Predict the 3D structure of the following.
Amino acid sequence: MKTISQSFGEPALQHAARTHVPGLSASASLALGKDFLWGAATAAFQIEGAANEDGRGPSIWDTFSHTPGKTVNGDNGDVACDHYHRWAGDVDMIKDLGVGAYRFSIAWPRVQPLGYGAWNDKGLDFYDRLVDRLLEKGIQPHATLYHWDLPQGLQDLGGWGSRTTAHHFAHYADVMSRRLGDRLASLATHNEPWCTAVLGHAIGKFAPGAADPVLATQVSHHLLLSHGLALSAMRASGAKCPLGIVLNQSSTTPASGSAEDIALARREYASFVRWYMDPIFKGSYPQDAGLELFPEVQTGDMDIISAPLDFLGVNYYTRIWASAAQPAVPAPCSLGKSDMGWEIHPDGLRELLVGLNAQYTLPPIYITENGMANADRIEHGEIDDTPRIDYVRAHLEAIAQACSAGVDVRGYFYWSLMDNYEWDSGYDKRFGLIHVDYATQQRTFKRSAHWYRDVALAAVTKTEA
Ligand code: FCB
């Protein structure tokens, strides 16, 4: 087994020295610093496929995506990018991309088919091999324990609506940290608990498909509790890598200066950002934001949830535009929208980061996801996704501005390494730097991948010149 330095941001690649980062302004290159970590991200359910192989149990996303009417074209994750079989070639591809870090998630039902009880050696071996291969190639492995694929066996016992699931999760976290922690560069408990709670349990757009706001609020508490219990279990057994959580966040803009729009923006920020940040960093739920539903909290829960973190992962795609008018005043979208219909608003990332830094005492931050869906097409063997290059460049400049304003951002993971299964949107939306032809599983670098490679490689060496 191989080990790497556990310190974040240590460049894993060495290349010929250059004086600046092409594609970024000189001030941004400087503000990001020489140790800034460049990465790309994926998640298990979105790329692995092999849903019924080597002892993997079903997850709630298998059940949900096989339920008619839940996903675009009825798409499911049975094959996805076939990464479970192509993982070695995919690691070579990450190496070719020139990045020093790769963020992936562990499929809980692949390593523990029911979410409780027996462990699956073949699943555990898969992640061992993946991590070792990344290290052999000089790429830092950053793992996430839960990127939405709850074992169906636990859903059958009440899923995240049941407090017991939080204890099962803590046990799973501890087993994985003992198994991989000596080689991981970081381990995050959850990815975007807001999505699990709200999209999965209040709106029903995501698995398990519940539409019950009271349940969703309790689920949000159990997710946070599971995070705290997992941290405490992993710390108790001497976890060897930095531990954190990944939250999806947005700046919030009132559509006008009216009291109604300002109050709405405040409530949106409270339910989207503060609902997760306050418990973790202040040990309480926001009481002052006009939110009506509160979960059942047991004595001691908030202490468990607010245990110190080694890092915070921030995922940012767009801002929240708050208009109380009927009908709502639309967002200006002066820089356009992505193929998801999400407004492109890079300055929101700067605003968000500067705001968080003022509101909380934070550990180092990693931008663990940022990226855009684009209607990419292969023409003459090439994919010209210039809008994606513009998107990434603008967000990197925004991060650099936040760094100059004193925010400690240590790295950036583009979402996603390659096109993949975009949840309820199926294979219809393409976020990758690398194009995937799902009929042949052929991977092709898009123009953005070549651009990102230049940025990542040059950044690693810019101060060596
Ligand atoms: C995030 C998810 C990720 C991907 C992107 C587009 O919310 O974490 O899996 O779907 O959105």
About this structure: Residues 16-464 form a domain with the TIM Barrel fold (CATH 3.20.20.80). The radius of gyration is 21 Å.
